[in-house]
């Protein structure tokens, strides 16, 4: 217990020194990142040059059996919080007739143990955990992936 108190005290005493050092560095200088393969990326603005969000378009076919469908529209600015999910404005079962959107799969209403719920399961509530927007992004790494024969 004495060691813990000593360590915490040292951290509190050193915190202002680190804050001073951080203030001395250039706050708005772009961060240079390097990928595992040695490619240099200059901050978050460089990532936006790699792709653009697509406008509404037909969904692309899936490449493997358990692949979550891609989102065929932009979701920029969509709000998904613990209390609100913008996706449900169109994709909730009671809204799809009016909006023409795809219904949320029945699998999203089951718990991990298979119990059916009357609303979306909390583990499936945050759509963008699995579903991503279709983009015109170029592959970051070359690969020779081919969809399974049954998926063509």
Note down, in words, how this protein is organized:
- This protein is mainly alpha-helical.
- The protein has a domain of 86 residues: Flavocytochrome C3, Chain A, domain 2 (Orthogonal Bundle).
- Helices cover 24% and strands 4% of the residues.
- The protein has a two-stranded antiparallel ribbon.
- The longest helix is centred in the N-terminal third of the chain and has 23 residues.
- The N and C termini lie far apart (63 Å).
- The mean pLDDT is 78.
State the main characteristics.
24% helix, extended, single chain, 4 helices, 152 residues, mainly alpha, Flavocytochrome C3, Chain A, domain 2, two-stranded antiparallel sheet
| Regions with little confidence, pLDDT below 50 for 5+ residues | none
Average pLDDT level: 78
Order of helices and strands: HEEHHH
CATH architecture label name of the domain at 51-136? Orthogonal Bundle
- What is the gyration radius calculated from CA atoms? 23 Å
**Based on helices, strands and strand pairing, what is the structural class?**
mainly alpha
Question: Strand order of the main beta sheet, please?
Answer: 1-2
Terminal CA distance:
63 Å
Largest sheet: 2 strands, antiparallel
How large is the share of residues in beta strands?
under 5%
The CATH fourth-level homologous superfamily of the domain at 51-136: Flavocytochrome C3, Chain A
How many β-strand stretches? 2
């Amino acid at each position: 217990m004495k060691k813990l108190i000593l360590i915490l005290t040292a951290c509190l005493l050193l915190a202002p020194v680190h804050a001073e050092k951080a203030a001395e560095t250039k706050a708005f200088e772009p961060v240079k990142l390097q990928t595992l393969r040695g490619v240099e990326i200059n901050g978050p603005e460089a990532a936006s040059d790699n792709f653009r969000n697509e406008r509404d378009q037909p969904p692309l076919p899936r490449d493997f059996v358990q692949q979550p469908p891609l989102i065929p529209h932009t979701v920029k600015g969509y709000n998904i919080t613990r209390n609100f999910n913008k996706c449900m404005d169109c994709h909730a079962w009671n809204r799809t007739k009016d909006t023409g959107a795809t219904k949320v799969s029945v699998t999203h209403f089951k718990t991990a143990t298979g119990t059916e719920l009357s609303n979306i399961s909390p583990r499936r509530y945050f759509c963008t955990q699995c579903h991503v927007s279709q983009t015109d992004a170029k592959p970051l790494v070359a690969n020779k992936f081919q969809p399974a024969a049954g998926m063509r």
